[in-house]
Design a protein that fits this description.
Blueprint: H1 2-20, E1 47-49, E2 52-54, E3 58-63, E4 69-73, E5 79-80, H2 85-95, E6 103-105, H3 109-112, E7 134-136, H4 137-146, H5 150-159, H6 164-178, E8 196-197, H7 199-209, H8 213-219, E9 223-227, E10 234-238, E11 252-262, E12 266-275, E13 280-288, H9 291-306
Antiparallel strand pairs: 1-2, 3-4, 3-13, 5-8, 6-7, 9-10, 11-12, 12-13
Helix pairs in contact: 2-6, 4-5
């Protein structure tokens, strides 16, 4: 009996660390990528974390400094992440060392190439240009991130000279380097629901991205306005991140953030928030029931997390 007990203990010690090492855990097999079925057999449920009502499909909150998990709910549930994809696209743009002062011309293909991901009647974010309109690369980078304009993301990808296939290859390669093993990108805008990840992987991406001062500055810009160079057409854009207007900066500050929405993904946000004590948390909310709920759930989870630090 003593020998049997010892064997059981040894087996349990082997099993528990394997379950904890979720860096290589994969749930890719369970996701159906058809547009009308996001999670095969999945049922939404309203729950709560630390007293915060949660309608989201998956959630994770990290200590931004240490990476330690404070709260999580279904962190390995694989889902389309929509425009949160653009965070990785911006990283690869920066990696390309393309100058923001370069000039780029609008092309019909910047928008037309996105039609393959759009159903009739879908509304997507884009800026209306005429072919040949010239602007700075800085303008398309900022509007691609601030307003989440999809055709301007196509433009800053084109500005790198890499070609979309190579650009996306680098996105996936970088994801692997970061340890985002349950993530796959198919294109740089997030319009394709086959851009998939998990709350855990998005938290890794956000924690890495928001260490970069330029990414922090771009993603927290509330309004960005510019003119085209030849005809002087004026564009005004506002940030899609409602958290930027929900905090009193004296007490709480959004250091970085990116939203995302598709019918398949529902409402998403990845953000980094700092309180008046200098504590910082990463909050990822994927699949919230409404746009407003993603912001309220992220905000209230941040408040709860600060009390744990």
């Amino acid at each position: 009996m003593r020998v049997l007990f010892t064997i059981i203990i040894l087996i349990s010690l082997l099993i528990v660390p394997a379950q904890a090492r979720n860096l290589t855990f994969t749930v890719a097999h369970h996701l159906t990528l058809a547009k009308d079925v996001v999670y095969s057999g999945y049922r939404d449920s309203i729950t709560e974390i630390a007293g915060v009502p949660i309608t989201s499909r998956s959630v994770i909150v990290l200590d931004a400094e240490t990476g330690e998990i404070i709260y999580e709910m279904k962190p390995l549930l694989k889902t389309p992440i929509a425009s949160i994809t653009k965070l990785m696209s911006l990283i690869i743009f920066i990696k390309s060392q393309t100058s923001l002062n370069n000039i780029i011309e609008a092309q019909n293909s910047d928008l037309e190439n996105l039609n393959q991901y759009i159903n009739e009647g879908d509304n997507i974010s884009y800026l209306s240009f005429y072919p040949g309109d010239r602007m700075r690369v800085k303008d398309v980078v900022y509007t691609g991130m601030v307003r989440s304009s999809n055709n301007t993301v196509s433009m800053f990808v084109r500005a790198t000279g890499l070609g979309e296939e190579e650009f996306v290859r680098q996105m996936n390669e970088y994801a692997q380097l970061l340890g985002m093993y349950d993530t796959h990108f198919t294109e740089p805008t997030g319009l394709d629901p086959k851009n998939v990840s998990t709350a855990r992987d998005v938290a890794i991406l956000a924690r890495h991205a928001f260490k970069n001062g330029f990414i922090r500055r771009v993603t927290t810009t509330k309004n960005y306005n510019f003119q085209t160079l030849d005809r002087g057409l004026y564009y005004q854009t506002s940030n899609t991140n409602g958290l930027l207007s929900m905090f009193q900066p004296t007490y709480y500050k959004v250091l970085g953030g990116k939203t995302g929405y598709l019918d398949e993904s529902r409402f998403n946000i990845a953000t980094q928030i700092k309180n008046w004590q200098g504590k910082e948390v990463i909050v990822v909310v994927l699949g919230a029931e409404t746009s407003a709920k993603r912001f309220h759930e992220a905000k209230n989870l941040a408040f709860a997390a600060f009390s744990e630090l």
